[in-house]
Amino acid sequence: MRNLGMGKQMIEGKIFEELHFLIERIKSFKGEPFTLPSFNCAPINITFVMLFGDRFDYKDPTFLTLLRLIDEVMILLGSPYLNYFNFYPFLGFLFKTHKIMLKKIEDVRVILRQYMKASREDINENSVRSYIDALIFKQQEEKNKKDSLFHDDNLMASILDLVMAGTETIATTLQWSILLMMKYPEIQKKVQEEIGRTVKAGSWATYEDRKNMPYTNAVLHEVQRFITLLPHVPRCTAVDTHFRGYFLPKGIIVIPSLTSVLLDKTQWETPHKFNPNHFLDAEGNFVKKGAFLPFSTGRRNCIGESLAKMELFVFFVGLLQTFTFRPQPGVSESDLDLTVPQTTFTLRPQPQATCAVLRE
Ligand code: HEM
User: Fold this and answer.
1) Which neighbouring-strand residues pair with 357?
2) Which pLDDT belongs to residue 4?
3) Closest CA to 163 of 121, 113, 119, 129
4) Residue to substitute in 40, 51, 162, 169 for testing ligand 1 pocket (most ligand atoms within 8 angstroms of CB)
5) Looking at the domain assignment, is residue 156 inside a domain?
6) Least enclosed by CB within 10 Å: which of 61, 166, 276, 301?
7) Could you say which residues of the chain have pLDDT below 50?
8) Does any domain span residue 187?
């Protein structure tokens, strides 16, 4: 991942390129209302650039199919029937959700296999341009090694992991950040004022600029804290484990609750209120908080953390530099719904629309 530019300038260049396409897309709505998922294409494309080596055109049929399948899988993953099945697999014959979901995942695999096949056909040390290429290259290097971990099933699982974990998460966070700016126009204005003071007209903010933009940085951290996007990612103990007086046998499912930290009233002044001051001191400097754990913690925390933070910053600042986001006509700020997210794997905002008004 590092060789592919994760968290570095190389990927930032791709994010700027994608920002340009995103801005053009938003401009095409000409100030008319459009739905929040319209922002998804750009962050999802960045993960695809890493996976496949190239961006997709937003109208590309493969791109649209992948977006649809990911969306459907995420909805099914949040279905209560799937949870019943997880807890009572022997009742599988009663539930259909897991079968429908596995079929959709298989449809994603069919597409991924085509990319793996293409990569396999002309891979060499100098042609590694993507995550898929890197895995295939390693597989070929180790083809005579007994017990190599780079076998087809593992490759597919790793690629699929990135497809699912690196798309919905960042795309939904971007949707929330725009929704929250519509809801709190005074915060949106303060971000735009800071952008005006810090970013030269005609250029985009780089990730490095966040150091001179404490307010914007605080707003984005607060977005991630407030939305508690991924309340719990189930894990399995790899070995017998003793933890705080409890014995967790090998193989048992453990579900850490990130919400308990992100909304902990001993850590945050107003845990249930959107409040960028959580990340600012009295002088307006940005303050890091130990309880800010949307990417979890420990050895298996989110692999995409640095990329996600960079994308979020560059896309968000670029969007607010170019547009002011308002609720659609007939909807007031107080009508905007922050409270009842859909049941999906991530906590998505309710389907809502926005109007992007071009700034001077
Ligand atoms: C706002 C965006 C994101 C959030 C909030 C987020 C959050 C998380 C969390 C909480 C986990 C579970 C960690 C654990 O169990 O300890 C995770 C895992 C993961 N994330 Fe992210 N993530 C985001 C974006 C991304 C992106 C952009 C990528 C890839 C480009 C990515 C790739 C992954 C992968 C592959 C895993 C699984 C790691 C493993 O299997 O150990 N994530 N993420």
Assistant:
1) 324
2) 76
3) 113
4) 169
5) yes
6) 61
7) none
8) yes
Ligand 1 atom nearest residue 173's Cα:
1
Number of domains in the chain: 1
Distance 332 CA to ligand 1 centre (A): 34
Task: Print the domain residue range for 199.
Answer: 9-227+301-358
pLDDT confidence of residue 342: 64
CB 355 near ligand 1, within 6 Å: no
> What's the pLDDT at 7?
62
- Quote the CA–CA distance of 136 and 158 in Å, as a whole number: 12
Q: How many CB atoms lie within 10 A of CB 46?
A: 27
Strand bridging mode 246-248 / 323-326: unpaired
Ligand 1 pocket check for 220: Cβ under 6 Å: no
Q: What is the pLDDT of residue 169?
A: 96
At CA 302, angle to CA 12 and CA 300, rounded to 5? 140
Amino acid occupying residue 80: P
Question: What is the distance in A from the centroid of ligand 1 to the CA of 301?
Answer: 7
CA angle at 175 for the pair 15 and 214, rounded to the nearest 5°: 65
Is position 326 within any domain? yes
Distance 6 CA to ligand 1 centre (A): 14
CATH of the domain at 142: 1.10.630.10
Distance CA 112, CA 199 (A): 39
Ligand 1 contacts CB of residue 178 (under 6 A):
no
Quick check: is 120 in a domain?
yes
pLDDT at 94: 82
Going along the chain, which residue ranges are E strands? 34-35, 235-236, 241-243, 246-248, 253-254, 323-326, 342-343, 347-348, 353-358
Ligand 1: does its nearest atom lie under 6 Å from the Cβ of 301? yes
